What we know:
alpha/beta
Amino acid sequence: xxxxxFLAITGATTTGKTAxxxxxxxxxxxxxxxxxxxxxxxxxxIGTDKVAGGIRARIPHHGVDIRDPDESYSAGEFxxxxxxxxxxxxxxxxxxxxxxxxxxxxxxxxxPLFAEPKLDPGRVARLRRFLAxxxxxxxxxxxxxxxxxxxxxxxxxxxxxxxxxxxxxxLTGRPxxxxxxxxxxxxxxxxxxxVVLELPRDRLYGRINERVSTMAERGMIEEVRVxxxxxxxxxxxxxxxxxxxxxxxxxxxxxxxxxxxxATRRATRGYARRQxxxxxxxLPPDAVRIDGLKPxxxxxxxxxxxxxxRGGADRETPDR
Length: 320
């Protein structure tokens, strides 16, 4: 078996991925690649729980603050960028450590996606405005009718995955599942070691509730207020993230503050449930499952032990 090209740390929200990824990156002299589909957005720091700038200055991070909230960023784009970042990290003699809970980003890297069809940006924008006015139940019904082969995966991926499935289907005339079957992959599959952090569901939900309260205390309401003042709204890709739409509802007078925070907690727990389902069914069979209740030092030691046993090095041999 070839030595792994990267080490990926994933898991549901609030399981401790960030702390573990930083500890592992320090131990391996690594650089971190974010696998978080919301941390790509500039100005969205508190609600996405980004690593502080001082830490990023010490441990280089990639894939953070690379888009504005009104710009899209697909799993295929992530895979292409990640391949480039990993190549450069290895060329510097360092180890790529991927961290985040966006499973579709990881899957696009280890099972490359098709070359996406070109869609007219104007038509995409008009369709997104139309879809934003539909309820979740209606969108789920549409995706089951228009692309039954992909419906279960799309629904499990939440609103963004449902909208993407409908966009491709409606604007190309062929289901997204057809494109996956027939179109050529973007790039060869990357070989890496995948680690998934796990927590009992009651502890997971407790952490989610605490995090929402902490984000409010740190200034998330003001963060959303600033984004809204810059012209970003609920229809923009970045603002569809959990918490942002709910806080926008509060700022627009549709929800009280506690209502918005409770709605954020419910939405985040729902997102975590979808993540858990995805991680049960979609991760590679040799993924390493780590008990998130263990002390951080024990988690790190376990990850490093498996990494070295599979041929991973503390430093990469620089590319020639």
